[in-house]
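haha ok so turns out i had the wrong file open the whole time. this is the CORRECT one, sorry everyone. sequence first:
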Amino acid sequence: MSSTALSSARVSPSGAPLAPLAPLRRPRGRDLSGSELERLVGELAARPELWSGLVEHDSAQRRYAELLSDEHLTVWLICWMNDHDTGFHDHDVSAGAVAVVAGRVCEERLAIGAAASDRTFAAGDTFHFSPADIHRVLHVGSDPAITLHAYSPPLARMGAYVIADDGVLARHPVSAAHELRPLQTSASGQLG
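then structure:
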């Protein structure tokens, strides 16, 4: 993910100091479940003073800011605009959760031999997913969107999926350090 990495002395893009995330209630010393992550991002969404100074939209790409990272948890702020789309992916060994704080996003779950199932989430909504779930998240609507994402254990790698013209599904490993974008294949099935 292209990101604004934040140290313990967190500052907004303008240089203003941000409140620490330490006050967030969460289990410590272990990985969190999907439902625990969903509660965490819901509570964080209700505390905009902890992240609103990092909101930055870019029509060319999603913008990321890492809010928290420790041995059991990573938390990200992601800003979305028109046509921003992760493409189908999994989160390897990490469970995850999302809170939508502005705008709308759609989560689609991959289905083979059937249409992908989709759900649209608006400001105030949360959802979670397991490491095994294959999904994509995309911006919907005309207003920019802001989402908060939590992963446990910390997101280190993902799998990005592409369906070739002949229907063959392929998984490509992706480091969490790279932004997810929909993968494209050529007529020969090669990534392009």
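The radius of gyration is 16 Å.
again sry for the mixup
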